[in-house]
């Protein structure tokens, strides 16, 4: 996937809006045929400890609607950082397995980026 960050205001109450587009033509998007767009806000930001955001897909599909709360907790771990992502309120139309796979891939790419620098 590739991403386009439309809005990113990293402060409590700040807005976020991002579009993720599938590179493979077989990817099925929630907003358009190949794109997932979501918007939301930052609820809590604790430097080096926690990020809580509430987001919602931009979609006409009722099973994919609704706010999700994502809580990212950070902890020191053997010369690095452990990241725990907890999702509450994931819409019924989102497969838990696909959601987990997507987050695992994203976190692996983030780790590779951070470790390269």
Automatic annotation (TrEMBL):
Domain of life of the organism encoding this protein: Bacteria
Record-linked Pfam families: AHSA1 (PF08327)
Segments forming domain Activator of Hsp90 ATPase homologue 1/2-like C-terminal: 6-115
Gene3D superfamilies per record: 3.30.530.20
InterPro entries assigned: ASHA1/2-like_C, START-like_dom_sf
Family: Belongs to the AHA1 family.
Name under which the protein is recorded: Activator of Hsp90 ATPase-like protein
Record organism: Archangium gephyra
